[in-house]
């Protein structure tokens, strides 16, 4: 497998991070290729890092769109209604009025 494809596939920040990961498992790289001569189980894991490039690429969208997962629907202004008469007695639930777009 080409090394560049490996780095992109596992979303490493750069080639140095990909190389460190492979060396952790005893896999060597020779220029653009990965040499699969041996694979060892490491005694310790690499410490997790914040993926700066991935996080900063997401800063272009508003938080609402990131949470909602797609562009937000247009804002709809609702007209307030009251379920009470002028004397403060409950008159029942008022049917929802048609939203007024603003």
Tell me the number of helical segments per DSSP (H or I, 4 or more residues long). 4
List unreliable stretches of 5+ residues: none
Instruction: Give the CA-CA distance, first to last residue.
Output: 55 Å
Order of helices and strands: HHEEHHEE
Major sheet: 2 strands, antiparallel
State the helicity in percent bands.
Answer: 25-40%
According to DSSP, the number of beta strands is: 4
Report the C-alpha radius of gyration, rounded: 28 Å
Whole-number average pLDDT? Answer: 78
Shape category: rod-shaped
Describe the model.
The chain has a domain at 3-73. 28% of the residues lie in helices and 10% in strands. The protein has helices spanning 3-9, 15-24, 52-57, 63-68, and strands spanning 28-30, 33-35, 76-77, 100-101. The strands form 2 sheets. The protein has a two-stranded antiparallel ribbon with strand order 1-2. It has a two-stranded antiparallel sheet with strand order 3-4. The relative contact order is 0.11.
């Amino acid at each position: 497998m080409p090394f560049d494809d490996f780095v992109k596939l596992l979303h490493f920040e750069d080639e140095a991070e990909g190389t460190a990961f492979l060396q952790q498992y005893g896999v060597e790289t020779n220029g653009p290729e990965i040499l699969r001569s041996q694979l060892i189980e490491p005694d310790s894991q690499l410490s997790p890092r914040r993926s700066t490039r991935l996080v900063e690429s997401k800063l272009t969208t508003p938080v609402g769109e990131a949470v909602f997962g797609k562009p937000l629907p247009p804002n709809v202004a609702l007209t307030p209604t009251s379920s009470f008469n002028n004397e403060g007695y409950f008159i029942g639930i008022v049917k929802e009025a048609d939203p007024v777009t603003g």
